[in-house]
UniProtKB/TrEMBL annotation:
Its cofactor is pyridoxal 5'-phosphate. InterPro entries: Aminotrans_V_dom, Cys_dSase-rel_unknwn_funct, Cys_dSase_SufS, Cysteine_dSase, PyrdxlP-dep_Trfase, PyrdxlP-dep_Trfase_major, PyrdxlP-dep_Trfase_small. SUPFAM superfamilies: PLP-dependent transferases. Gene3D superfamilies: Aspartate Aminotransferase, domain 1, Type I PLP-dependent aspartate aminotransferase-like (Major domain). PANTHER family: CYSTEINE DESULFURASE, ISOPENICILLIN N EPIMERASE. This is cysteine desulfurase. Its EC number is 2.8.1.7.
Amino acid sequence: MGIYLDNAATSYPKPQKVIESMTNFMMDIGATSGRGAYETAIQSDMLVYQVRKGITDLFHFNDVKKVIFTLNATESLNVALKGILNKGDHVITSSIEHNAVWRCLKTLERDIGITISVVSCSKEGFTNPFEVENAICEDTALVVFNHASNVLGTLQPIKEIGEICRKYEIPFLVDAAQTAGVYPIDVIDNNINLLAFTGHKGLLGPMGTGGLVINWKGDIKPIKSGGTGGDSTYEYQPDYYPNRLESGTLNVPGIVGLGEGIKYIQKVGVNKIYHKEKELLEYAFNQLHEIEGITVYGPQDSEKIIGVISFNLKDKSCDEVAYKLGRQFGIMIRAGLHCAPTAHEIIGTKTTGTCRIGIGYFNEKKDIDFLIEALQKINK
């Protein structure tokens, strides 16, 4: 296969039990969850419930009903943003958001008339929580921040921002696409009202899985309506969770696979995963700085980021470097804007993009060594 260093996009490889569980479900059960009273349908129901429970345990939450399954973090963010915001509402967000947040907000600004305040950050991607407090006004209806930048890896002061939001009774939405499964998250302790996550990155599950954890008593309007398996004579979407936000047939095989990914993480331990990736980051930073003409972006401090490193080689486009790494050396990385143009604007790479390494739990130091050797050859 080669060397995979694109875990910020999708984790690879997956634990064997993730793959086996999905195959076994399709072969031995195969029934829809919430749509039948026969044995395999009940088994399907139980499997989905167990994964909801696993998610609450992982994020230190306490209400299984308020774990909503989606296709990915993008859908989770859209469910929250479009379900909460109304005409005239004011939103505060960071200056390093992924397009999953930014495009949704800009669309709502254009279509229904919300207003947006973007809190500035340093060139390393750090946000001052007091800047968030200063941006709050009478119409502020939501604060949305990513937990860690997918371009710089920079961790945001989520707990401190959450405390400010709680003080002003404003819901706080966190995009945990880059941190779920690789960095400790406590929904209650971190003052998070809504946590959006994807299954196919740090949670080691399959693509097409994700969710929204709702630690909030306010209403979220459904962005879709349809069958929920119960109350079928009622003409409107139910007002209770999870049915309120889950219409249509769930991706049960994917959810089952996600559940096995979470079991693997819980068995290993999030802290152990985080510390291993932190060691690889430190090693990578030391090795990368040996390359002549390289520019490495972001804090370059393993204590302040998750496993993402963006860089460029002098006089070479990021696309050229990524292509040669893949074609000549079998090393897989990401190149471009990474769906986060505002983050690239901060580091001055909006017109060029960057190469991006996405370090995962299954990477080893020898992968970094091979990458460095390849970059040295490309440089020459």
